[in-house]
UniProtKB/TrEMBL annotation:
Keywords: Membrane, Transmembrane, Transmembrane helix. Residues 1-55 are annotated as: Disordered. This is Uncharacterized protein. It comes from Limosilactobacillus mucosae DSM 13345. The chain crosses the membrane at residues 71-90.
Length: 91
């Protein structure tokens, strides 16, 4: 039965069992496609370090943005208070 397509209805029991085993092995251990090249295992720690660095960079950027937004809110609040004081004393 090697590399031959046999009609399942015309298979013997032994051929059918072998065919089932092959199908089961194919499902359990699919071969990776040729164009999909997985990276070797030594690069995996590099990838985790790279992800950790990216996450740390994102956290630093977030903290910096929070600080800038807080200062912007404070500045706008002070500007509103100054405008009200000017309008109160001028008007």
């Amino acid at each position: 039965m090697k590399n031959q397509q046999i009609d399942p209805e015309k298979m013997t029991r032994q051929q059918y069992r072998e065919w089932q085993k092959q199908q089961q092995q194919i499902q359990e251990n699919p071969e990776p496609p040729l164009d999909d090249v997985s990276e070797p295992t030594p690069l995996q720690p590099r990838q985790t370090v790279k992800k950790a660095q990216a996450q740390q960079l994102a956290e630093e950027k977030t903290a910096r943005l929070k600080r800038r937004l807080n200062w912007a809110i404070l500045g706008l609040s002070l500007a509103i208070i100054v405008v009200y004081l000017i309008l109160f004393f001028v008007g």
